[in-house]
Amino acid sequence: MARAARSVSSAQRAGDPRTPRQWVSWVEKKFRAARLCYGHGTDNPRDEAVFLVFRALGLPFECAPEVLDKPVSKARGERLAELTRRRIRERRPVAYLLQEAWFAGLPFHVDERVLIPRSPIAELILDRFAPWLPAGRARRILDIGTGSGCIAIACAHAFPKASVDAVDVSADALAVARKNVRMHRLQTRVRCLRSDIFSALGNRTYDIIVSNPPYVPARTWRKLPPEYAHEPRLALECGRDGFDVVRRLLAQAAGHLTPRGILVVEVGAGQRALMRAFPGLPFVWLEFERGGDGIFLLTRPDLAALNP
Ligand SMILES: C[S@@+](CC[C@H](N)C(=O)[O-])C[C@H]1O[C@@H](n2cnc3c(N)ncnc32)[C@H](O)[C@@H]1O
Prior knowledge:
single chain; alpha/beta; Rossmann fold; two-stranded antiparallel ribbon; binds S-adenosylmethionine
C-alpha cells in the first residue's frame, strides 16, 4: 500500500494525467492496484475514481463531454494526487476526504461524525413509499438515527407538505444533520432532536417512521475492512446480535404510528436472523430496482402481534 501511495506522488510530478478523463483512468488504476474496499456510496474502483475526480474538480456528474478533455491545472492535479494518496494510505472513504456525499440525488455535508449515506431507502423515498403509503400522503414523518439527516431531508423534499422529525442519540451527528437542514433550507419543516429512539417524542404519532439504525453484530464489526473504522462505531455496531436498537424500535413503534402508518427499517444482512428472532411478525421485505436488500416494512396492525 505504501508503494502505491509513493507512486501516486511521482506520477503527479511526471505530470502523466492531464485532463479529467485521464485523471479518472489514472486514479482508477491506483485504486485497483491498492485493493481497496468499496461500500460507501460506490461499489467499484471506477465509480470511486469518477466521484473523486469530478467532485474534487467541482464538476457536475452530468457535465458536457468536452469538459473532460480540458487540461487540469497543476495545483488541481496535485490535489487529485494527494486525495488519491490519502484514500490509499489512510483507507479513508472518498466521501470523507471531500466532505460530500449524495443521497436520493441530493448533496450532503459529511464528516467522521456521521455514517456516509448509502441506504437503499433512497429509492423508496424517491418513489414516495409507493405503493405502501395509503393515499400516497404523509403529513408527519419520523427518521430515527438520522446521522447526516439524509433520510429526513430527502423525505422533506419528496413530501413538500410534511413535517419531519429527525432524531439521533448522538449530539455530534445532530450537529451535522442541522448543517444539512440549513443547507437545504428546510429549517421550518425538519426538526432535529436528540432522542434515544422515541424517548424525546412524547406521544407524537407519524404516518411514516423510517430508520436505518445501527445493526452490525459486535463480532462482525470488529472484522470490517479498515474503511469502516472511519465511521462512528455508534452508527454501525449494536450489541451481540446487532438488534439492540431494532428490538426497542419494534417494541415501541406501534404507539407512535397513525392508524394507517408504516414502519420501514433497514437491517441489511440481519434479515434472516431478525425473522428467526421475531417469528410472529409478518415482515414485508422490500425489493429495489437499484439494488440492496434487508429492508422491511410493517404496518401498525402488523406490530400489534408484539403488544397484543
Ligand atoms: C446506520 S447510521 C444511519 C445514519 C443515516 N440515517 C443514514 O442512513 O445514513 C445509524 C444512526 O443511528 C444513531 N443511533 C444509534 N443508536 C441510537 C439510539 N439509541 N437512538 C437514536 N439514534 C441512534 C447513530 O448515532 C447513527 O447516526
